[in-house]
Inverse folding.
């Protein structure tokens, strides 16, 4: 198997964490320019990372890749509640990515504009809900939803996009896994 992506993508990192003990090749690429962009176009017409190549089978999108790997390994399916948590994590992550891309494009954030207002509202609602679930212990096990939530929090912290002071349970979850060897091996800061 080959996993195509970048070391800075939280979506790629979650799959790398899930594949911790698996035999696969990670193809790190610059998805914005040059040969990496060309390879991305060749491997994933959605122009997103990650993409997984398993023999003749190409699988796009982290959520679908997880499902593919889960099925392939006969792992237990996620509960509907866990699927909902992933939807919240992905919604917040998608909004953060959009905000970062606009910032990199020189577009100033203005809470009065509809786009920004909706993205910030989604982020605040999703994080508050996820914080409540973390307080209740729903992310106390190192499983795929917890990996995804960790990757979201760590990526947002790495990109300095949000202050998590209002979400102590999310901060605690983030701190819990800081010394894990696979967390360190996939750290986007290195």
């Amino acid at each position: 198997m080959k996993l195509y992506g970048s070391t800075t993508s939280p979506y790629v990192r979650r799959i790398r964490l899930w594949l911790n003990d698996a035999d696969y090749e990670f193809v790190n690429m610059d998805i914005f320019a040059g040969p990496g962009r060309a390879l991305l176009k060749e491997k994933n017409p959605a122009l997103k990372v990650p993409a997984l190549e398993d023999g003749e089978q190409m699988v796009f999108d982290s959520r679908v890749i997880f499902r593919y790997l889960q099925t392939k390994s006969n792992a237990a399916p996620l509960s509907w509640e866990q699927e909902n948590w992933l939807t919240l994590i992905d919604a917040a992550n998608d909004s953060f990515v959009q905000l970062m891309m606009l910032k990199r494009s020189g577009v100033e954030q203005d809470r009065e504009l509809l786009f920004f207002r909706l993205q910030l509202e989604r982020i605040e609602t999703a994080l508050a809900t996820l914080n409540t679930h973390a307080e209740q212990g729903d992310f106390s096990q190192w499983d795929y939803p917890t990996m995804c939530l960790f990757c979201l929090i760590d990526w947002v912290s790495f990109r300095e996009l949000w202050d998590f002071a209002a979400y102590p349970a999310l901060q605690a979850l983030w701190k819990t896994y800081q010394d894990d060897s696979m967390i360190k091996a996939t750290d986007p800061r290195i």
Remarks:
- DSSP finds eight helices and four strands in the chain.
- The longest helix spans residues 80-104.
